[in-house]
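Problem statement: downstream parser choked on a complex file, so we are re-checking the raw output for the uridine-5'-diphosphate run. The parser issue turned out to be on our end (a line-ending mismatch), but while we're here, posting the original submission so the record is complete.
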Amino acid sequence: MGHQADEFLSPHVLFMPIPLQSPVNCMLKLAELLCMADIHVTFLNIDHFHSRLLQYTDVESRFSKYPGFCFQTISDGLPKDHPRCADKFYEMMDAMENVVQPLLMKKLRSGSLSSKSSGNKALPITCIISEAIIGCALDISQQINVSLLYFDTISPCAVWTYLCLPKLIEAGEVPFKDNDMDASIGCVPGMESFLRRRDLPHFCRVHDISDQSIQLALKEARQLPKAQGIILNTFEHLDKAILSLIGNLCPNLYAIGPLHSLYNTKVAACIKPPEPNSTNSLWKEDRSCLTWLNAQAPKSVLYVSIGSQVPMTINQKMELWHGLVNSESRFLWIIRPGSIIGETSEDVEVLERHTKERGCIVSWAPQEEVLAHEAIGGFFTHSGWNSTLESIVAGVPMICWPCYVDQQVVSRYTSMVWKIGLDMKDVLDRVMVEKMVRELMVSRRNEFLKSATETAKLAKVSVSEGGSSSCSLDRLIEDIRFMSL
Ligand code: UDP
């Protein structure tokens, strides 16, 4: 599909992320890569999210060097004090549909989203890149007659389970309610030999299919094949089988991952002199943990983080802490402000006091740098897709404690397919934590380090000049240019 125009239009992409830390981070990285290729970008942010981004990051000044880039903010109509976190995801998605879509259509129809940065000439949108879960993006692209590319920022193995959801429901395998969680799931092609109930996305654990979470995933599965292409954050060597399965339903795929690594490679090649480390993080990074790491032996420290959304109860936190201490490994633990349900400042103080000998606790870290540090030997993770890819690039084996969305299937892949970690799914007690930490960091250390190092090499090849992800990005850029003809 091309824009109806009788003259050449400069390519102009409208980005539509979901207003959460990791998806926005991914979309900003891709937006910047497009800017470097002289493509105009309008980046749509919910105004509440945008204010936080401006408060904590230098994003505006960083993008000011691209004349074709601009942010557009829009209201989601939710109350000012709405938490806008993964727990309230479905309210945020309703707001996208009911408030953001009409406002955005109004702006698009009035021409107020046309970039003016090329002389005085207004540039209409020629392509939309939207997170796949945003149902209204297809409607919007059809109404303004422009191409739509979905960027599914979750893991491709989970995207495949979404695409198989109609089949799972038809076969009576979904939904199920926390019973017989080890039962095999036979009707997801490519995963027959290892997939169990507990490895499916969390929303399959519901009473009936009218549940909003299932309906949203079903809608995504119906809409994915209708886009002109799908951008995925993975690389050929890691997800060859899955890419080929998804490709049967959605033939035009762009596998451009690990995106953070592709981004770092391109930025290093394009931006001279290099800029200081920039971040799209909504928390202040505590760099003192790097000094602490400098004093530790190589590969001796377990890095512990559950990302930007997942919460933990106090009981889970104490079980984890006892398990870590009993394992006798050193650890660097990220405890995000507000992430422990019901925690008091006294709890924090007691834990910090008793951790001093063995570990370091900070509230937010420069994770990519931490994972690349030679003292890190393992990563206790919630299997968020960005954390997983960052760990893969750094060659760090993982212990997985997944919580929701794609994390359950990612943790199964980490242990059974990529063989770069252990899956601790659905259990968090001190005995299990100690056992797994000892296995990852001591008894099976060499085996895991070997497979993680090999996978890291393949990831790096894919983002280097001529590598599969680098070539996919070039093809994406060419196709976006073509869409404006
Ligand atoms: N992260 C970080 N510092 C921290 C913890 C996490 O910069 O102390 C970043 C991490 O590098 C990753 C993101 O937060 O890019 C987490 O994304 P992921 O997809 O793993 O999980 P989510 O936060 O979406 O649950």
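For whoever reads this later: The domain at 288-461 is CATH 3.40.50.2000 (Rossmann fold).
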